[in-house]
From TrEMBL:
Amidase domain: residues covered: 27-432
PROSITE patterns, sorted: AMIDASES (PS00571)
Pfam families named in the record: Amidase
Protein name: Amidase
PANTHER family on file: AMIDASE AMID-RELATED, TRANSAMIDASE
Organism: Paramylibacter ulvae
Gene3D superfamilies, sorted: Amidase signature (AS) domain
Classification lineage: Bacteria, Pseudomonadati, Pseudomonadota, Alphaproteobacteria, Rhodobacterales
Domain of life: Bacteria
């Protein structure tokens, strides 16, 4: 086993395959062995696809030998959140409501990744039906946080993040409806890309709120995120050449984002801002009209759609659900279709205004989460603590979902504290280039 492979970026592994220094089969077997021998294997992976992974690795090795590699990540092993359909493999979305659900085809983004040569290691645990930002799931498993085994990892892409953070995947693919890629990425010191709603296909992805659901990678570098984004969209990789930050304008998103913030994420964010300024960036603290109004709509828009999607299934067997998630879904019954429709009409107007206000900036900055990972045991025994922690965890990230933005979280020098960069809708490529430049200096 080459242990260095377990901490390398996916892109560096791909370059090693390109030069012939790394054999895709040996690489994949190294990851499979690491998974099988790991103390948290069953808490991170819902299933490990040994046969599929080795078959795909052998095909990648043949392509490498024949100089027919399909992408930089051809032969690189990655994990998939357990809401991406996998043909012939259970896809249960973290809930007993879907126990033993076996799709007949892969999700479209997984098909694209497979066509590009990415190796599927297996499916990772997640919050139940993706409806929590904490990653706590007493129904299936709760992965550990890489920085504190007594804390939760963040969700809902909890296993996706921890599979990478613990060296059990070169990268992970998750989903983000209100922060579910960015929170676990931030709390496990990873890069996480939240794409614009509608940018990457949701075909074959178990839904939560289709108008907010997005697909995104959790990785060790911005380059990895850019590579996986391109693969899943089936487009060329964007330009990541360094930018000149001198004169670039960034706005600190002051609306709500610093309310009740803990000292560690506040200081970590401040350190990044100072680094940006020292590199010539213009950083101003800005309040955007309409954000508070949009946040007031969130309760209706998220819970109404989630309950409309799953209510009938839930009420057939409510006892199968974790009570905190069940309660959250049932909040959707408090709103009418008319309220939901009116809410969306208002939100679309707010989005247009927000986009106009933010158009002059390279990106909007905020702490990814205002809190550090909460204690697992207390969450299981204190309902008020669970509710407050979940709302705070998702508060800053939810701004981007409501406003239709794409967003990127980057790790800072402070463990479990991320900095978030929000971009305009469908500006993923420019966001990644800016993010890569910032990553290099922080």
């Amino acid at each position: 086993m080459n242990k260095n492979w377990l901490t390398a970026t996916a892109s560096d592994l791909g370059r090693g395959i390109e030069t012939g220094e790394i054999d895709p089969v040996a690489l994949t077997q190294t990851y499979l062995d690491a998974i099988d021998q790991h103390q948290f294997r069953d808490r991170i992976y819902a299933s490990v696809t040994h046969e599929r992974a080795l078959s795909e690795a052998k095909a990648a090795a043949m392509r490498a030998k024949d100089n027919k590699r399909q992408s930089l990540l051809d032969g690189v092993p990655i994990s998939w959140k357990d809401l991406f359909d996998t043909a012939g493999i259970k896809t249960e979305a973290g809930t007993d409501l879907l126990k033993n659900r076996v799709p007949s085809t892969d999700a479209l983004v997984l098909q694209h990744a497979t066509n590009a040569g990415a190796v599927c290691l297996g499916k990772t645990h997640m919050s139940e039906l993706a409806f929590s930002g904490l990653g706590l799931n007493p129904v299936t498993q709760t992965p550990p946080n890489v920085n504190d085994y007594d804390a939760i990892p963040g969700g809902s892409s909890s296993g996706a993040a921890t599979s990478v953070a613990f060296g059990l995947a070169a990268a992970g693919i998750g989903s983000d409806t209100g922060g579910s890629v960015r929170i676990p990425s931030a709390w496990n010191d990873l890069v996480g890309l939240k794409t614009t709603s509608g940018d990457l296909s949701l075909d074959g992805v178990v839904p939560l709120c289709k108008k907010f659901d997005t697909v995104g990678p959790l990785t060790r570098s911005v380059e990895d995120a850019a590579q996986l984004y391109a693969i899943m969209k089936n487009v060329p990789v964007c330009d990541l050449s360094p930018m000149e930050l001198k004169g670039c304008k960034f706005a600190i998103h002051s609306n709500i984002a610093f309310d009740d913030i803990e000292i560690k994420p506040e200081n970590a964010f401040g350190d990044v801002v100072e680094i940006l300024k020292s590199n010539g960036a213009q950083v101003t603290c800005t309040s955007f009209d309409g954000v508070e109004q949009a946040m007031d709509l969130a309760g209706c828009l998220f819970t109404y759609e989630a309950y409309a999607q799953w209510g009938d299934v839930i009420e057939d067997n409510p006892g199968l659900m974790y009570q905190e998630i069940l309660y959250r879904f049932r909040q959707g019954k408090n709103f009418s279709k008319a309220q939901y429709d009116d809410g969306w009409s208002t939100l679309l107007k707010l989005r247009r205004s927000f986009d106009a206000q933010s158009s002059e900036f390279e990106g909007l900055l905020a702490p990814t989460a205002p809190i550090t990972p909460p204690n697992l045991q207390r969450l299981e025994t204190d309902s008020d603590y669970f509710v407050r922690s979940n709302l705070l965890a998702l508060r800053n990230t939810r701004i981007g979902n409501l406003m239709g933005s794409c967003a990127l979280t980057l790790p800072t020098k402070t463990p479990s504290c991320g900095v978030m960069l929000m971009g305009r809708p469908f500006s993923e490529q420019s966001l990644l280039r800016v993010g890569s430049t910032i990553e290099a200096i922080i």
